[in-house]
Write a structure and sequence with these properties.
alpha/beta; 54% helix; 11 helices; 5-stranded parallel β-sheet; 281 residues; 2 domains
């Protein structure tokens, strides 16, 4: 959606600039052809030809520069996000002490899949199960992330990657607090999920893949997002106009159209129980 808005902005700038430039060309042509009885007709022809060619060239020029980082501090700072004057503070209460207090091993349980695949429902069911078993958890999804810490991000490919990166950093803080965090995000690209894994640590990252077929996801689509995407009303929609890269080797894979959510949640719990439980030996 953000990408579409940027194109509209460039088109608007193209049109307004051409009005000014073409008017100037017409005036100059009238001056050059002032002694010609057909001066008005010739000046109009020159202005139209000049406007058509330069509008196309200007638009292509704008789109080309939109993809270039040169001179844009907002993009450059993402490549060097850690200023030299920032130092890590050592606190007297560390993760080991928090783990002992909570009696659990914190992990990031990352649910990925298409919109409507059932990942959020599955994460919610698993969190209820963990809560009943006495574990301390917190769930992150679009509702509590996009509306707050990431509200300034659009849905361009760059901002979606930044959205996932920030979620990884927030998840890392939850890990440090000793909390088991359940994250439900489409996160369509392998590189973005890999980035989260690097941030939180490979040993702390548990990937759950909701592999529900897109046909089923569309049938569940109460908001009509898939329909709008197929009609071209939503750009860069995962599974329709943007790619989804399935996990190569997820910790757990489930098709929620074939397995009831409660059964799937129980199966996941059985597999992760050993990972999240402290072994006092």
């Amino acid at each position: 959606m953000g990408k579409d808005l940027s194109k509209k902005r460039h088109i608007a700038k193209t049109i307004t600039w051409r009005i000014i430039a073409t008017s100037t060309t017409f005036i100059l042509a009238m001056i050059f052809f002032r002694d010609d009885p057909n001066a008005g007709e010739k000046a109009t022809g020159v202005a139209i030809a000049e406007a058509t060619l330069k509008m196309l060239l200007y638009y292509l020029h704008e789109r080309a520069w939109f993809k270039i980082d040169f001179g844009l501090l907002s993009r450059r700072k993402k490549k060097n996000p850690k200023p030299k004057h920032i130092y890590k503070q050592d606190f007297s209460i560390d993760q080991t002490m928090r783990k002992q207090r909570l009696k659990q091993n914190p992990k990031v349980i990352w649910f990925t899949g298409l919109s409507g695949s059932g990942k959020s429902t599955l994460a919610n069911e698993l969190e209820h199960l963990l809560y009943k078993q006495g574990y301390t958890t917190y769930a992150l999804d679009g509702d509590n992330v996009r509306g707050g810490i990431n509200q300034n991000l659009s849905f361009t490919s760059e901002d979606r990657s930044e959205n996932i990166r920030r979620i990884g950093e927030v998840s890392k803080l939850f890990l440090d607090a000793g909390v088991i965090v359940l994250c439900s995000f489409i996160s369509p690209l392998v590189k973005d999920r890999k980035k989260v894994q690097e941030i939180v640590g490979e040993e702390n990252f548990i990937e759950i893949y909701a592999s529900t077929p897109i046909e089923v996801c569309e049938q569940r689509d109460v908001k009509g997002l898939y329909k709008k995407a197929r009609a071209g009303e939503i750009g860069d929609f995962t599974g329709i106009s943007a790619p989804y890269e399935a996990p190569v080797n997820p910790f757990f894979e489930v098709d929620t159209s074939k397995i009831p959510v409660k059964d799937a949640a129980n199966s996941i719990f059985d597999k992760i129980k050993e990972k999240i439980t402290i072994n006092y030996g």
